[in-house]
Every structure is written in structure tokens, then in C-alpha cells.
TrEMBL record, chain A:
Domain (Tripartite ATP-independent periplasmic transporters DctQ component) ranges: 32-161
This protein's name: TRAP transporter small permease protein
InterPro entries hit by this protein: DctQ (IPR055348), TRAP_DctQ (IPR007387)
UniProt record similarity statement: Belongs to the TRAP transporter small permease family.
GO cellular component, one term: plasma membrane
Amino acid sequence: MWLIGLERGITRFSNLLGIISTILFIGLLFNVFYDVLMRYAFNDVSIGMQELEWHLYAAIFLLGIPYGIQHGGHVRVDLIYENLSIRGKAWIDLFGCVVFLMPFTILVGYYGVGFSYEAFSLGETSGDPGGLPYRWIIKAVIPVAFFSMAISGLGMIIRCINVLRGVSEEGFSHPPIQH
Amino acid sequence: MIGIIMFFVALVLLLLGFPVAFTFGGVALIFGVFAEGFDMFAFMPFRIQSYMENTVMMAVPLFVFMGIVLQKTKLAEQLLEAMGKLFGGVRGGLAISTILVGALLAASTGVVGASVVAMGLISLPVMLKYNYSKSLACGTICASGTLGQIIPPSIILIILGDVLGIPVGDLFHAALFPGMILIACYIVYILILTFLKPELAPAMPQDLDNETRAQQIRSALKAIIPPLALVLIVLGSIFTGIATPTESSALGGMGAIVLALIYRQFSWKMLYDSGLETVKVTAMVFAILMGATAFSMAFSYTGGDAIVEEVLLNLPGEKWGFIILAMIAILILGFFIDFVEIAFIIVPILAPVAEALGINMVWFAILIAMNLQTSFLTPPFGFSLFYLKGVAPSSIRTMDIYKGVMPFILIQILVLVSIMVFPELYGMD
Amino acid sequence: EKVYKLKMAETWATNFPIFGDAPRNMVRIAEEMSGGRLKITIDSANKHKAPLGVFDMVRSGQYDLGHSASYYWKGKVPNTVYFTTMPFGMTAPEQYGWFYYGDGMKLMEKVYQPFGLLSFPGGNTGVQMGGWFRKEINSVEDLQGLKMRIPGFAGEVLAKLGAKPTNIPPGELYTALERNTIDALEWVGPSLDLRMGFHKIAPYYYTGWHEPATELQFLVNERTWKKLPDDLREILRVAMKVSAYDMYIQSYHESGVNWATMKSEYPDIQVKTFPQPVLNAMKKANDELLTEEAAKDPLAKEIIDSQAAYMKTARVWSNISDRAYLESVDRLDQ
Ligand code: NA
Ligand code: NA
């Protein structure tokens, strides 16, 4: 089944984003710790390292969102949803993906391309002394993340179709975040 | 008018159960494109960038990580159990401990997402383990996590100070006592409720056979010291100026790793797993913020803010009528407009009227802050409710959370009214 | 007759005092002078959420006009930094002279035109204060390791002298200064600083050196500008000029009133001027930086030289007119 194959490919892609985000997060933890330590103990401040903090933090949450879509990590108001059959849930998810998620993420991703291209063409850097160059890289995370959300959304659509065709029931029971 | 329709459509569509973040985004897209065309979405990257550069929000992943490590190493559980035992036979001891720990956490951050999620991770499993009523547990966590808004330092107080032209220090000072009263009221409520309905919050089982009270206190202290040290690192680093409030959350995260090392619970796998879960929770919080910013963009660019302005400009010009209606208006708007929007768009409309009426602006600011804190808890759009749902086990239903926060919303309104009527009790007149 | 509906984005938050008054005055004047043919709506930062995105949004045509400050675009177009204010640079009247009667406007056009933008002076804050310090600065050594929130070119000057410019989000500035996370910060002047409450936590308020004449800016999208008939362009030009001038006067007025309030309500604030050796060292560092910048880019050199030459002439007159007058009046018997 090529649909199932595609779905597995998309899952691997989303997992990769999750791994990248996790590594960046551990980097952020040490980055902030380092900045505090240097400032307090050695009276040294690096604007570049301070800016790196928000670069990391921004990449973490943006790249984490597609990973979250893949793993059912996004909050639902479940007053009705909880009581539906798997087919019922699949219908709602299919509808939501096609009408809400895909158009929204693709449109934002599309405008994100121009946004980061602008920074690239200007050679935008930080305006502060010692700040980080290549602003376009962090701005480019916006389109990358939103197109990745669309890809994860496509994975969700395939899962819904598989359920509705009776091929598979994968992807409708995610382990909760904890416990 | 489009803004109002959009609001009700979002309300209905949210009920379908598709993820909140993308329902907001999708509704914004449909209405925004219908009214203004695709180009409105050219503003989205700018709005996203404003979150990316908002380093205060960095506290979300960092605090969440601290919470997850504390939970994985069972240190949080030990802390809450020990505190629960210290309260001895008192029913609801765990809930009271949750409020106190939540208040300490709130003292270090003004980011509601950070403290609600961290408290949800730390204390919800423990309360459920001891058979607390689901809704009581959820209500307690949402309410105590939201305390970060009123207990300084807090973002909303800083923004209000800026908008109203009041020195931030004055507002921090004025907010402290109302915050304490709120905490006290929560605790009194838990005590009364569990006295009337003991089954909602069973007392911790006491090992009566072999542990004396003294031993109990000793073992409780032993359990409290490590997490307490962590709290001291976080608060202490702010107090001594070693770190800014945001940075202190990273020190908390590093401290949690050190504790795990000391208690021989550390492994690289634990670090990686905690990091991955942090990413997932953080993504959940920020996805909602991304969807909400698209929603508020569509709301304001299709003229929603003009309608709101019009309503507010027609409030009565007499002190009590003005205050009461202004508070009601903010409470209602808080259902569907972000608190930052309220502070920047609504408050400047109200401020000149308040000033002309000779109203004490510090008092007015505290009333608004208290009111906005409530907006985090009010269904269906209260962000605290979403955040808790995001980290709760699947046995917790949305309705459990809605039911649980109702009494706390009432308490907040009562405290708000008491500040309104008896400002002198709070040192403001 | 055709009505031109234009949209303007400002960098400031809704109802931001003084800074936000300038664009509103401009809009009012333009509307009335054009008999309603120019209708301009203003979106503040709370609506567009991109205070520092005004350059891009006006450039792309999402907005026709913007109200901001040129030095915010330093990271995008380095030469924009010279059109706001420079450490040890011109005072407001001198700088207005340079803009309108010297080469200022021509050079600004040279910098902005390649990006499809026009820039006009947008109101002046006058001399900004040097900032709030927790400890006294008595020597150049006291700057060593001084952690200060001071962005931009002035930050670079201080960094050269061993200070540590530090990024702190505005929301955490108060706590950071109160707890000695940083030792000093600069904000604007009495009217805006008092709102932040810095006087409660820092005893020393230093007089200015780094922003002697902060000029805001009106940005106009070139395509919009070309669309407008000649008379409306002239009306817009006049409205911008008048509202800019008005903001300078308003700033002067507000600063005066607020300074008096501050002195009577908080008599403990110690107002200081940096000692001469410190100022000499800052000036030297500043000149070295300017030389470096001039060596990197011919247009930068042209601007820096033009400003230096203009200031040289104008300052002689400032000294013989304003300064001599103020000093003579100061010496009068009461
Ligand atoms: Na707080
Ligand atoms: Na300044």
C-alpha cells in the first residue's frame, strides 16, 4: 500500500523534527546557564550568545509543532470528540485538516518564504554590536516549520483515509504526554 | 460585525474537537480571506516573529523541563506527599500543597503557560493517585498556576504599568497583598469543601503503626529539602540578581538535572526523554498562541476592535457605574480576547475616563489585573484550561476541567469585588 | 474628486505619549489641508504586532506609510543608523538644519531609495538622558565590566571602553536593575523614564551624550508616493514637516514639566554629568568607530563627513548664540 508507505515516511520526517528540537532544547538550557554564569561569575556578556537564546527557543517551538501534530500532542475540546467512534473521529480530523490545518499552514508558510527571502536579500544581521549575522536563517524556520506542519497534516489525512477505508486504525490512540 | 460572527463560529467549531490551535487558525483564514483577501496573511510571519523574539516566553520550555525532570525523578511526588502528610489528618492536604507550590512557582514567572503546565505535570498525577476528585484537582492546578499573573513579577502588571503610566515597582508592591489574599481564599475554600465533602479529597493515609509525629516531620523535611532547594535556587537567583526571572527558569532546569544526579536517577536517556517531552508540551502551548494570534489578527483587521472601542466609549461617566461596567466588559472580553490585547487596546480607552473621575490608578490597575487573571480560567477560551488539558492523562475530560475551575472563578470574582468595595483593606484608597 | 485612502504603521504601542502624537498630527493636518482627499488610518504596534517590521511592511506595500526611527534598520541597511542621532553629534536645531538646508535629505534619499522607500524627519525627542546608574562613574576604570542596557552605536562606544552592553527585554528591565543583574540602563528622558520607576532603584541619573537629538522618521512607499498627485504630495510633505517640528516642541515642553515634577517629588535623585576624562575617552572611542565605519563603505563616509562638516559650522553659531546667551543670563544677579 503506497499510502501506508507514504504515511510512514511522513512519520519519520516528523520524528526527525522532534529529535532536532530536543537537541536544540538541551542546547538552550546550557546556553542560558552559560550566559548567567559568565555574567555573574566572570562579568562577561556576549550579545551574540544572548541572541542565540531566542534563536534556539524559536526553532524549538516552531519545529516542535509538526512533531506534535504527528503525535497527537495538540489540545482538543473533547466534549463531543471523546464519545465518537474511531470512524467519527477520522471524519472530524479529515474535515479539520482539509478545511483548517492545510490551508492555514500552507498560506503562512507561503508568506514566510517572502519574509525570510527579504532578510536574505538585504543581508540582514542583528542591529546590536556583537549580535548574530544571517537573520534569514532563523526567519526561514517559519516557512520550514509551517510547510512541515502541512506535511504532518498530510500524514494525518492519510491516517484518516486509511481508517475510513478500513485499512488501518493506526494513529488514533496516542500515549498522553505523561504517565 | 464579522469579528462577532467569527467568534461564535469558532466557538461552535471548537466543539467538534479538532485541535484548538488549527481551528483558530482555520477560522481566522476563512473570515480573514473573505473580508480582506489572502494578503492579510502576509502579516502572519511578523506576528510569529514577535513571539520568536519574546524572550520572556522562553520560560515556558525551561519551566516545563524542570517540571518533567522533577516528575520523572519522583522528587515532585515526594515533595507533595510529604507536604500532604505534614498537614496530617487535614483533608485536601495535597490540594493545599499544590496551591502553595504553585504560588512559589508563580512568584518566579509571570508566564501562565509555564506555571500551569509545570503544576499540571508535577501535581496532577499525585492528586489522582490519592483519589482526589478529578475536577477538584484540575481546578486547583489551573487556579494556582494562573497566580503568576497577579503575584509579582508578572507580565500583565508590567504592561499595565506601561499603559497606565504607573511605575512598575508601585504595581508590584500593590499586587502582593491581594495575591496573598487570593491564595488564602483558595486554601479556605479547600478546607471548607473537604470538610463538607470528604470524599473529594481523601486525607493522606497515615502510617500510624510505626511512625511517630516527630518521625513523620523528619521524613517530610527530608523529602522537602531537595525540591525546596530548587525553588530557592530559582527565587534566590532572581532576588540576588544572579539571573533575570526568565533566566532563573534555566537555573531551575539545570538544578533539576543536578538533583537527578544526586539521587542517582540521571541517565542520558532520561535527559533526552525529558527534552523530547518538553518539546511536545512547548509545541502544544505555542501552537495555541500561533492560532490565537491569527484569530486576533482577523478579528482586529476586520473591524472587531472598532466595535469593542465603540462599546467602551459609551460606558457611564459616573464612578461606580463606570467601574462596575468596565469590570464586566473586561471580564466578558477576556473570554475571547488575549490579555495583552486588552491591556493595550481596551485599557487606554478606559484610562482617561478613570483619570477624569479621580480614580486611584494603582487601584484601577490591580482591579484590571485581577480581572484578567480570571480570563485565563473562563471556559471555553481560557488558555489555562487548554494548557492543562494538554498535559493531563486521557482520563481527564474537558468537562472535568470546566467544572473544576468554576468555584475558583467565583472566588476570584469575590476577591475582585472586595478590592473594589474595600480598597483600604488592601492598602489602596 | 478621488479620495486616497492610505494606511500607516507605527512602531509605537497604542496611545504611546508624544511619539504617537506625531503621526496623528500628521494625519489630521494632511486630511484637513486636502479637504478630505487624503485619508490615512494608523495601525499601532498592538495591531500589526511588528514594531520593528515597519521597514519591511512599508517596503512591501502592506502599509503605505510608517512612523518609526531610522536607526532601528541598522541590521538591514547599516547606513540608516546615521539619520536618527549620533553620540556627540548635532543638537536638534543643528540636525534639522543639516536635513533641510544641508545635505541631510539628499543623503537619506541615497540610502533609502534603493529599497523603494522615502524617508522624512518625523519628530525629535531632544537630548536624551544618559541613563540610570546604580553606582557613580568617576573614572574610565568604573566603566570596566559595567553591565548596561544600551543598544546600538552608543553600546559599541561603551564596549570599546570595557563596558558590557547587555540585552534585557523591556519587561524585565526594572527587576534586572533592581537586583543588580545589570548596573545601568538608558531609556529616554524624564517623561518616559519616570513611568518605568527607575528612579526608585537607581540613585544616579546621568546627563546625555549618546542621543543628543533622536529624530523619528516617516517612511513612505515609493509606489504610493508616485501614485499621488503633486498637490497631495506637497500637502503630505508639509504635514510631515509640521508634525515633526511640533513633536520636537512638545518633547521640550513635556520634558520641562516632567523634570520639574521629578525634582520636587523625588529630590533624592542625584543628577550627574560624566567626568571630563570619561567623556574624552567616549569621544575618542566614538571617533575611532566612525573612522572604521567610513573605511568600510563610501556612502557611510560621505554621510559621516557631511555631518561632521555641517556640525563644525553650525556649532560655532550655537556657541556664539545659544550658549553665550545662556551663560550670560546665568551670571545675572537675581
Ligand atoms: Na509572577
Ligand atoms: Na534611548
